[in-house]
């Protein structure tokens, strides 16, 4: 059984992410129903588009209860782009909508005077060391596409920040749950290293 699950809940094209893991030689599988989640060692939650429809699709997929259960027993999970935003309590995108609540905080919109969405490469500056960031240069560039950003309020949850009109959290962690606002699968060597770090992570090296 492949060790890493990529959650497919109908939000975004997963091909680039799966191709990146295949390139790394990481055993992975695309999961569309709850049953396979019972046996995987770690979980990737990607996502693009708007927060509320993504959250609705995740609920409709039938996987939410099992995902929650797996997170509660300590299975590592990494949210990517909108998938990272879903990890927080709520988002102000198109109203106020509840998220998964696995990391305390909310999702806010960039100021209206900024060009949004932010599209392209930007620096990620580390605030804490973490196994997810091992072997990656502080200030490495990653590829972003987003109009909203994470504002965690759990102490010490921010692992890295990025500047775009203000300093915002671009990498977040609480216990066994991580989120990255950028797309590691589109971020060349730094992104591949981050994915490798996650896919080889075990609680013993936390």
What does this structure look like?
The chain is α/β, with parallel strands linked by helices. The chain has a single domain, classed as Class I glutamine amidotransferase (GATase) domain (Rossmann fold, 3-Layer(aba) Sandwich). Helices cover about 20% and strands about 30% of the residues. It has helices at about 15-25, 50-60, 65-70, 80-85, 190-200, and strands at about 5, 30, 40-45, 75-80, 90, 95-100, 105-110, 120-125, 125, 140-145, 150, 160-165, 165-175, 175-180. Strand 1 (about 5), helix 1 (about 15-25) and strand 2 (about 30) form a beta-alpha-beta unit. The longest helix has 12 residues, at about 190-200. The protein is globular and about 45 Å long. About 40% of the residues are buried.
Topology summary:
Layout: E1 4-7, H1 15-24, E2 28-31, E3 42-45, H2 51-60, H3 64-72, E4 77-80, H4 82-85, E5 88-91, E6 97-98, E7 103-109, E8 118-123, E9 125-126, E10 141-146, E11 148-152, E12 158-163, E13 167-174, E14 177-180, H5 188-199
Parallel strand pairs: 1-2, 1-3, 3-4, 4-14, 5-7
Antiparallel strand pairs: 5-6, 7-11, 8-10, 9-12, 12-13, 13-14
Task: Kindly report the name of the CATH homologous superfamily.
Answer: Class I glutamine amidotransferase (GATase) domain
- Proportion of residues in helical segments: 10-25%
Stretches with pLDDT under 50, minimum 5 residues: none
**What percentage of the residues does DSSP assign to strands (E)?**
25-35%
Q: Would you tell me the overall average pLDDT?
A: 95
- Beta-strand segment tally: 14
Can you list the strand order of the major beta sheet? 2-1-3-4-14-13-12-9
Number of helices: 5
CATH architecture: 3-Layer(aba) Sandwich
The chain-level structural class is: alpha/beta
- Report the end-to-end length measured between terminal Cα atoms: 24 Å
Structural domain count: 1
Helix-strand sequence: EHEEHHEHEEEEEEEEEEH
The radius of gyration is 15 Å
Dominant shape:
globular
Largest sheet: 8 strands, mixed
Q: CATH class, anyone? A: Alpha Beta
CATH topology: Rossmann fold
């Amino acid at each position: 059984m492949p060790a890493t699950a990529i959650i497919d809940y109908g939000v975004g094209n997963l091909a680039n992410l799966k191709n990146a893991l295949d390139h790394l030689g990481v055993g992975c599988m695309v999961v569309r129903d709850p049953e396979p989640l019972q046996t995987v060692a770690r979980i990737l939650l990607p996502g693009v588009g708007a927060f509320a429809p993504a959250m609705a699709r995740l609920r409709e997929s039938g996987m939410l209860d099992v995902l929650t259960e797996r997170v509660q027993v300590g299975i590592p999970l990494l949210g990517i782009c909108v998938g990272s935003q879903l990890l927080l309590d709520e988002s102000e995108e198109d109203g106020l909508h509840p998220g998964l609540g696995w990391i305390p905080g909310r999702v806010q919109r960039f100021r209206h005077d900024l060009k949004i969405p932010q599209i392209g490469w930007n620096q990620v500056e580390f605030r804490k060391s973490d196994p997810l960031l091992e072997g990656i240069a502080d200030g490495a560039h990653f590829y972003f596409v987003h109009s909203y950003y994470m504002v965690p309020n759990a102490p010490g949850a921010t692992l890295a920040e990025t500047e775009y009109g203000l300093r915002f959290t671009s990498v977040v962690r609480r216990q066994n749950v991580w989120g990255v606002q950028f797309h590691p699968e589109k971020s060349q060597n730094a992104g591949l290293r981050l994915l490798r770090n996650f896919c080889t992570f075990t609680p013993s090296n936390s």
